[in-house]
Amino acid sequence: MARFEEGHSISCLPLFEGEAYSQWSNVMKYFILAHDFELWDIIEEGYIEALKKKKKLRSENDTKTKLNSRAMHILLCGLSEEVSKKVSTCKRAKEMWEKLERLYGK
Fold first, then answer.
1. Rounded to whole angstroms, how far apart are CA atoms 6 and 28?
2. What are the DSSP E strand ranges found in the chain?
3. How far is it, in rounded angstroms, from Cα 32 to Cα 74?
4. Residue 92 to residue 11: CA distance in whole angstroms
């Protein structure tokens, strides 16, 4: 009879502590995609805040600002304290992801 090891929880973030970045980033990407496709779009594509006062543009911008905040929160929750200090000054999720890639990627 085969025995199976306990898997990872689908509700727990993978924690990055400074090693095995490519494995962590891949797992984190799919964690975020499973949580919300739009969050990954914000990380991958970024966004520019619109300063126009048209109601539709302001509403879209508010939505993207909220998505950016959620994406940054998820990323920060998946980082050890030491690693999060290195990206805590980032203002955008895309900027944070790219800085992690520069610091720890290949």
1. 19
2. none
3. 8
4. 24
3-state secondary structure of 34: helix
Half-sphere exposure of 62 (CA within 13 A, CB side): 7
pLDDT in tens, 37-95: 999 999 999 877 655 556 666 677 788 889 999 999 999 999 999 999 999 999 999 99
Query: Helices 93-104 and 21-35 meet at what angle, rounded to 10?
Result: 160
Q: How far apart are CA 90 and CA 28, in angstroms?
A: 18
**Domain-wise residue ranges, the chain:** 21-104
Largest CA distance in the chain: 65
* DSSP structural state of residue 14: P
